Amino acid sequence: MFLVDSHCHLDGLDYQTLHKDVDDVLAKASARDVKFCLAVATTLPGYRGMRELVGQRHDVVFS
């Protein structure tokens, strides 16, 4: 069994002190059995940035 994070904001995390990058965040989540994420943007520019941040990953979709 695995978990799905059905509402996360990958673009709003602290990448200066808590996480290296989005790959680091997803690796930490996976280590805790979170295998799929729905990353949510709150603005149109945020959506565009999320698209760039998430890229072509198979374990993340964005809205």
UniProtKB/TrEMBL annotation:
Protein name listed in UniProt: Metal-dependent hydrolase
Superkingdom classification of source: Bacteria
Protein keywords: Hydrolase
GO molecular function annotations of the record: hydrolase activity
InterPro entries per the UniProt record, alphabetical: DNase_TatD-rel_CS, Metal_Hydrolase
